[in-house]
Amino acid sequence: MNLRKWIGRDVELIYADADGRLTRRLVRLARVEADYVYGFDREKRLPRTFRLDGILAAQPADGPGGRAGRRLG
């Protein structure tokens, strides 16, 4: 999955954590390095690190069906 093209943009992620829990995240991507993606979680208002193999789907938040400008919930 090539997430580098969205660095600096808000991206919606479907993410499976280490325990297999699925979450939907709205993240401002900062950088992608080897097996990790670094960004700012817009809902939690905190920097976060995501394992690349845990990202099941990604799309720009300002694209069709994106949540940019909408409150998460």
TrEMBL record:
This is WYL domain-containing protein.
